[in-house]
Amino acid sequence: MDILKEATDWAKAELVSTPFFVLFGVMFLVASLGFWQMGRTEMARAYIIPALVAGALLMTIGLGLFLTNKTRIGQFTKAHAADPVAFVESEIDRAVATLQEYQTIVFKAIPVIIAVCAIGLIFLDSPVWRASLITTIAMLVVILLIDGTAHARIEGYHEQLLSWHKTHK
User: How many domains does the chain have?
Assistant: First the structure.
């Protein structure tokens, strides 16, 4: 197994995935613009700022992840050439840390935040609060969808790293 190819393939798959954050961010920004231009009711106008914030956050996440992974691809070749075992060990450590973050943030904290927002919808009647809570739920669902597939990819990549490490120790 060519671990450098596997690492590069994983990073390239992430490069394909992260623009979805930007795409959804743009969709939220367009929705904000639409509510600003065509919103006639108080509820419609209440979505302007929350959608704008959600769009900006999703675009920032997407661009940050894209640039990080793009840079990482170039570093893979250098790190692997210098010391393949150290490269794999550092990638294993990074993959483990990322998997733990997914377990804590994506699969525990985000669902709790979604539940709290949903409960808040029951008790808060203000259009601004309702729009903010609904937009937050929508944004977090987008993050769950994209990060769910990213989690599966890094889990597979982690298994490949462990397999390679066992045979080259």
Answer: 1
Domain hosting 93: range is 3-167
- Helix (H, G, I), strand (E, B), or coil: what is residue 125? coil
Sign of CA dihedral 11, 110, 89, 2: negative
Q: Is the pLDDT of residue 89 over 90?
A: yes
Contacts of 87 (CB under 8 A, 6+ apart): 3, 7, 76, 79, 80
Q: How far is CA 114 from CA 3, 17, 106, in A?
A: 38, 23, 11
Cα end-to-end distance, the chain, whole Å: 14
Residue 157 confidence class, pLDDT cut points 50, 70, 90: very high
**Which are the contacts of 15, defined by CB distance < 8 A and separation ≥ 6?**
66, 69, 70, 73
Return d(Cα 127, Cα 135) in angstroms, integer: 12
Cut 0.85: pTM above it: yes
The pLDDT assigned to 2 comes to 86
Rounded CA-CA distance 27/139 in Å is 11
Is residue 119's pLDDT more than 90?
Answer: yes
